[in-house]
Amino acid sequence: MAFEDVCKQNLIAEGEVVPCKVGDKEIVIMWADGGEPKAYEARCPHEGVSLGQGDFNGRILYCIAHGWVFDGRCGKSLQPAGWQMKEYPMRVQNGIVQVDITG
Fold it and tell me: What are the entry keywords (predicted)?
């Protein structure tokens, strides 16, 4: 695995989504209320629109382009069903969030 530094741990918080770049790939760190922070590709599976600008209420992420709806705890699409945000391995070491986009 090739973990890369993304941001400081204190820049992410429960109930928030944080857009980031790893190399030339846009990702989001999404931390749903009562869950764990997770890293996802920031492309909506519908038409590739950035989810980094999506509307997140702490539990649900809404794509601003066409209204697709994702569960913030697991990246699974709720509307329409049957889709999934691509998740990347993530860890925190020495106060730095690291993500592996090669996995």
Answer: 2Fe-2S, Iron, Iron-sulfur, Metal-binding, Oxidoreductase
Adjacency order of strands within the sheet including 16-22: 16-22, 25-31, 37-41, 87-88
> Using CA atoms, how far apart are residues 49 and 33, in angstroms rounded to an integer?
24
Considering its fold, how many domains does the chain have in total? 1
Write down the pTM of the prediction. 0.93
What digits encode the pLDDT tens for the residues 52-102?
Answer: 999 999 999 999 998 999 999 999 999 999 999 999 999 999 999 999 999
Q: What is the CATH number of the domain that holds 54?
A: 2.102.10.10
Distance between CA atoms of residues 51 and 54, nearest Å: 5
